[in-house]
Amino acid sequence: MSKIKVLIIDDSALIRQMLTKILNSAPDIEVVGAAADPYIAREKIKRLSPDVLTLDVEMPRMDGLAFLSNLMRLRPIPVIMISALTQRGADITLQALEYGAVDFISKPQIDIAQSFESYSEEIISKIRVAAHAKVRPLNVLSNKTLKVVPKYSADVILSHNPSPLRPFKTTEKIIAIGASTGGTEAIKVLLTQMPASTPGIVISQHIPATFSSSFAMRMNQLSAMTVAEAEDNKVILPGHVYIAPGGYHLLVERDGSRYITRLHQGNPVNRHRPSVDVLFRSIAQNVGTNSIGVILTGMGDDGARGIKEMHDAGAVTVAQDEPTSVVWGMPGEAIKQGGIDYVLPLHKIPDKLISLCSNYTKNLSNDTKI
């Protein structure tokens, strides 16, 4: 098989050198060129026809966002953004994901060489995923370092309990959403279409701490619901969305007749913290039939086991279909494990969720009258 051809676009010679060294160490990846700014990159793209680009956010002559927007309109190519772990870096990176970037690599501010080396495996993995990601023209669809860690299961946070608590009758329902690669845009599609009357939503998206705060603020500006980073021991309210902070697992627990959020800084699960499996298991054990699970685009299999546990506990479960997923890893694995009731294109999931919540309320009301 031919190697994945990568073009590195970055004004830092050190970053270009480090990325070249890391990527060329993989037998299936070849760095075919490097460019110090978008103008040089434009000519090299024409000549080298790379499969994947890495693109710095801030560069001379033309910033990364402007270049990305032109690229995704005229010649869509999978792009991995190289972003500084700063508030400004986070804001710009989220815009880049909206423009069609597949993923991002966090660029540390100090000791760049050692930091990059410490998570070279993840950088290589992201390039491999990007090479097979679905990228579309721009207007069609609209921790300090990320280290390689052991792939623990959700057992390290919550023991597996196949017999969850008996569900109690309540008008409160909870929607739990899990996503990874491509998830910030998929979540935006969902939240911008959900009415303010929607039951409480809890979200686990693989994202570093600085980015999760910016992401929550951005979603709050776009959604009719109130969106914020989850805090520990807060009551989950209808019309509110709780996004797991980077570096923390988000769990849902029962407190009398209410549901509350809990944050946990235990080991990463499936190499992630927050982990979708942890959130979904807590929902299976504490919410059960009062819940709806949604698993969206993402690399790997985090969430596949957890949503199966939700399904077995009586929850209704939904997975994003392959054609609309940037990467069909997590939802595809969830379907293989038999934990999914509905497989839908992204644009149809909001209406399904609204319908499921409406039917639940009507059925509960009828039961109460009896």
Distinctive features:
single chain, 370 residues, alpha/beta, Rossmann fold, seven-stranded parallel beta sheet, five-stranded parallel beta sheet, 12 helices, 15 strands, 21% strand, disordered C terminus, cytoplasm
Please describe what this structure looks like:
This protein is of the alpha/beta class. It has helices spanning 13-24, 38-48, 64-74, 87-99, 112-118, 120-131, 183-191, 209-222, 276-286, 304-312, 330-336, 349-369; strands at 4-9, 29-35, 52-56, 79-84, 103-107, 174-179, 200-205, 226-229, 234-235, 240-243, 249-255, 258-264, 291-295, 316-320, 342-344. Strands 8-10-7-6-13-14-15 form a 7-stranded parallel sheet, sandwiched between helices. Strands 2-1-3-4-5 form a 5-stranded parallel sheet, sandwiched between helices. β6 (174-179), α7 and β7 form a beta-alpha-beta unit. The chain starts with a strand and ends with a helix. It is found in: Cytoplasm. One of its GO terms (molecular function) is protein-glutamate methylesterase activity. It catalyses: [protein]-L-glutamate 5-O-methyl ester + H2O = L-glutamyl-[protein] + methanol + H(+); L-glutaminyl-[protein] + H2O = L-glutamyl-[protein] + NH4(+).
